[in-house]
Give the backbone structure.
Amino acid sequence: MKLLLLSDVHLSSKTPIGRLDDYRKTCLRKFEYVLKYARKINASVLQAGDLFDKPRDWFILLDIVQLLKRYNDVRFYTVFGQHDTYMYSIENRDYTSMGVLAYNNLVYILDSTPLGTEHPLIWGVSFNPDLKIPEPANKNHKRDPQILVAHATISDQALYPGQAYYSAKKFLQDYKAFDLILCADIHRHFYFSDKGRYLVNTGPMMRKEASHYNFSHEPCFYVYDTETKKL
């Protein structure tokens, strides 16, 4: 099977200062492109949190509901980012835009219980200040691929002086049980591999800030084949 990998998305009905387009329409156009491509190659989508820019954006939610219903043959798996979480309250996550999608089975929230009983096995880690990574029982990489989707401060470099972050390269080395790790939160595109294992961050789908990085960043996604374990 194929998995389309996407990190931060930040869907929003509000146009950021400095953008000259209609941000909401651009969000919908790009998001539909992702779903359409996934359908074309018969892939499910793995998205690593911050699907929405604000936890309760009712002015784009209906559009996203309609899109996900239109592409209801594309399975969409995700985790909560801090932008999907109202006032950082884990207890109130059901009462958010993401919570509405999950309640109506339009997206599926990954957690510490692995998705699937055969292959692939997929774990999810939503935003949480106390980062806890699940430990797969089956560490035999000759068998089923084991995948982690995490919304956590994993980065290839500090983005500002004194930033606390988990080194992406070290994270890949420390959690050898996973064949594939998809992360988000850090709005940077990076990729590391180690003996057929991968850690990726696709960077942001939407460019909200007129930063030096965003002037060169080209939004993208990866496709992972669970049969060949190739990215």
